[in-house]
Amino acid sequence: MNSLLTGRQPFDENYSVIEETDDFVVIFKKSGIAVQVTDKQTDDLERILEEKYKGRVYVLNRIDQPVAGLVIFGKNKAFTQEFSEMIQKREVKKTYLALVAGEPNPQPTILKHYIKKLHNRAMTADEKIDDSYKECELKYTLIKSFDNYHLLKVDLITGRFHQIRAQLATVGLPIKGDLKYGSKRPNLDRSIGLLSYQLEFVHPVTRKVYKFTSALPQNDVLWGLVDVETDLGSGVNQ
């Protein structure tokens, strides 16, 4: 099993390589840089890695530009296809940490909605309105509370556009700094309080178990109040 020990590591660049094999590369992405864009004048991780490896890479999990954390890229078509099928079968476990306002349920809570992408944001509904609305589901667990915000562990069950941001906002838990989904004020660096924290899967060919854990960002004082061993040792999958 592979794992990056959680801590407060310095990331001076927009990204840091966590693990690299012949089949994939796992990246820690800082908030502010996009994983993939269509604007040829804008740098993104996909283009940066293709220049680094002198060849094609394939985005296997997307996180939004203002979100930090783990991203995995395939380095060949065979692994990319196998991994994509694993995601569809919900065999890849993705865990996030979120700093939210509002009043979360103190008990582990499953949220189920229907979600629709509309331009650059998502809309949610309690019932399926038409075929453009797709079912989405997540589970959140309250880890720690601060004066005005709370730290949640979010286990992503489906993977839809802006799903975590939209679902939490729908139940009155907007993510810190996320103006698009109801936060009252922005973060100074335009990030939002959402971290792609853990990624776990079994290699489709070798059957080796991989588990990666991100360091916490350094761009918000609230992340600095999280004790990795005490707060996350029992609240996040080990």
What does this structure look like?
There is one protein chain. With 238 residues, the protein is α+β, with helices and mostly antiparallel strands. It has one domain: Pseudouridine synthase (2-Layer Sandwich). It contains five helices and eleven strands. Strands 1, 2, 3, 4, 5, 6, 7, 8, 9, 10 and 11 form an eleven-stranded mixed β-sheet that branches. β6 and β7 form a beta hairpin. The N terminus is likely disordered.
List keywords for this structure.
238 residues; alpha+beta; Pseudouridine synthase
Outline the secondary-structure elements.
Layout: E1 15-20, E2 24-29, H1 45-53, E3 58-59, E4 68-74, H2 77-88, E5 93-100, E6 109-118, E7 121-125, E8 134-145, E9 150-156, H3 163-170, E10 194-202, E11 209-213, H4 221-224, H5 228-232
Parallel strand pairs: 4-10
Antiparallel strand pairs: 1-2, 2-4, 3-4, 5-9, 5-10, 6-7, 6-8, 8-9, 10-11
CATH class: Alpha Beta
Rg over C-alpha atoms, rounded to the nearest angstrom: 17 Å
Report the total helices.
5
- CATH homologous superfamily identity: Pseudouridine synthase
Task: Count the E strands.
Answer: 11
What's the CATH topology label? Pseudouridine synthase
Principal-axes geometry comes out as globular
Helix-strand string: EEHEEHEEEEEHEEHH
- Name the structural class: alpha+beta
Number of domains: 1
Q: Spans of 5+ residues with little confidence (pLDDT < 50)?
A: 1-12
Helical percentage:
10-25%
* Strand fraction: 25-35%
